[in-house]
From TrEMBL:
<feature type="domain" description="Glyoxalase/fosfomycin resistance/dioxygenase">
    <location>
        <begin position="27"/>
        <end position="135"/>
    </location>
</feature>
<protein>
    <submittedName>
        <fullName>Glyoxalase</fullName>
    </submittedName>
</protein>
<dbReference type="InterPro" id="IPR004360">
    <property type="entry name" value="Glyas_Fos-R_dOase_dom"/>
</dbReference>
<dbReference type="Pfam" id="PF00903">
    <property type="entry name" value="Glyoxalase"/>
</dbReference>
<dbReference type="InterPro" id="IPR029068">
    <property type="entry name" value="Glyas_Bleomycin-R_OHBP_Dase"/>
</dbReference>
Length: 142
């Protein structure tokens, strides 16, 4: 019996995240534009009768995601202050493309444009209009 190899591989969807960074936005619609400009895909958006976003989720195509909502929401989660989120991509071109899309958005402050690091990664850092810190880079962690 001869051994054969397959030229096709099944591509599995990234696993469902089990750790979710969470951020609050004063203007959730502007926050959605920001997230989508980075490359996230909004997968859930729940508004209350008053229009306040009670809960929303955005997935990163490479795996993982972020939960977000309105800072106007009552309760501890609605009072989230600025947060920091690091988003990983394997492709340095994705870092540059995401930076090009977000740098012109209203209220976005560029802290560090795309650059190489001494640990062989490419990354950039920005602050969104609500003060949340975001970095997109190729560093996968140790």
């Amino acid at each position: 019996m001869s051994e054969t190899t397959s030229e096709t591989t099944k591509k599995l969807a990234p696993p469902t995240p089990t750790v979710w960074p969470s951020v609050g936005f004063v203007d959730v619609d502007a926050g959605i534009r920001f997230l989508e400009s980075l490359g996230f895909v909004v997968t859930a958006l729940h508004r209350g009768p008053d229009g306040v976003v009670e809960h929303a989720e955005a997935r990163w195509p490479g795996g993982g995601g972020v939960m977000f909502g309105s800072r106007a929401k009552a309760g501890a989660w609605g009072r989230l202050g600025p947060q920091g989120v690091y988003v990983v991509t394997a492709d340095p071109a994705t870092v540059d493309a995401a930076f090009e899309r977000v740098q012109g958005l209203d209220g976005v402050e560029v802290l560090r444009p795309p650059h190489g690091t001494d640990y062989d990664a490419r990354t950039f850092d920005v602050r969104d209009a609500d003060g949340n810190l975001w970095a997109v880079g190729t560093y996968l962690g140790a």
